[in-house]
Amino acid sequence: MASGVKPRVKVPKKATAGEAVTIKTLISHKMESGQRKDKEGNVIPRSIINRFTCEFNSESVVDVTMEPAISTNPYFQFDATVPEAGDFVFTWYDDDGSVYTEQKSIAIG
């Protein structure tokens, strides 16, 4: 994992079967667009999180492709319907080939 890159995810611990829950994600990442220059005038290479996905029990919930204009530390909030107890798996894909994952379980109750 690249230095300073840290995903954070907030998922309710419990839901009712069929309930829509709000999920919040944030990943700390500098998100260089590839268009800025350093003090010596050299182009700073592009380095962004270029894709974010969320799956629930191996079913796709969200799949987002990001472009260089995305902000530093991208934040996503979305609702997902929870049909049963299970696991959400969140994955962020970095230009440098790094992949960051976080998993959160939710119970039905």
Explain how this protein is built.
- With 109 residues, the protein is mainly beta.
- The protein has strands at 6-10, 14-15, 19-28, 49-56, 59-65, 75-82, 86-94, 99-108.
- Strands 2-8-7-4-5 form a five-stranded mixed β-sheet, with no helix packed on it. It has a three-stranded antiparallel β-sheet with strand order 1-3-6, with no helix packed on it.
Descriptors:
5-stranded mixed sheet; 109 residues; mainly beta; elongated; 3-stranded antiparallel sheet
Summarize the structure.
The protein is mainly β. It has no helices and eight strands. It starts with 5 loop residues before the first strand and ends with a strand.
What is the H/E string? EEEEEEEE
The shape, in one word, is elongated
Oligomer: single chain
DSSP strand content:
over 45%
What is the structural class? mainly beta
Sheet bearing the most strands, described? Answer: 5 strands, mixed
- In terms of per-residue confidence, which ranges show pLDDT below 50 for 5 or more consecutive residues? none
The side-by-side strand order for the widest beta sheet comes to: 2-8-7-4-5
Number of strands: 8
N-end to C-end Cα span: 35 Å
- Helical content stands at under 10%
**Using only CA atoms, what is the Rg?**
16 Å
Mean pLDDT equals 92
Number of helical segments with 4 or more residues: 0
